Amino acid sequence: MSDGPHERPFDRGLQTERTLLAWRRTCLALAVGNAVAIKYLSDLLGPWATLVGVAGLALSGVAWVISARRYRRMHEGLVRDGTLALDGRMPLLLAGSVLMAALAAIILMVVLWRPW
């Protein structure tokens, strides 16, 4: 049984596969960070912290799915005719998830800050 033309790697260094793994690690790290924020901030701030954390988790999950679709689209384009088909959705979702995590961290610092 031979692999189809779209099943073989584009290059021997597996750059697109390594890029997919890097995006997945990033999404997983952001999801863990948002889950930790939900756990620790919900006791301090109530439902608002949970809402921010859940929004960050949702963005991380969507970014995970889009990274897989992006990989397939890139891989097929590279194998078929050697071109990349990219858009800006993945970096936008990543930025949104980082924004949610940063917002949770800022809220935590403001709530726990005791200058005296």
Helix-strand blueprint:
Layout: H1 15-45, H2 47-81, H3 89-112
Summarize the structure in words.
The protein is mainly α and 116 residues long. Helices cover 78% and strands 0% of the residues. Helix 1 packs antiparallel against helix 2 (47-81) and helix 1 packs parallel to helix 3 (89-112). The longest helix has 35 residues, at 47-81. The protein starts with 14 loop residues before the first helix and ends with a helix. 20% of the residues are buried. The model has no long low-confidence stretch (mean pLDDT 77). Pfam families: DUF202. The chain crosses the membrane at residues 48-71, 92-113. It comes from Microbacterium kribbense.
SS-based class = mainly alpha
Count of DSSP-assigned helices: 3
First-residue to last-residue Cα separation? 72 Å
Helix-strand sequence: HHH
The strand count comes to: 0
Shape: elongated
Structural features:
116 residues; mainly alpha; 0% strand
Q: Could you give a short description of this structure?
A:
The chain is 78% helix and 0% strand.
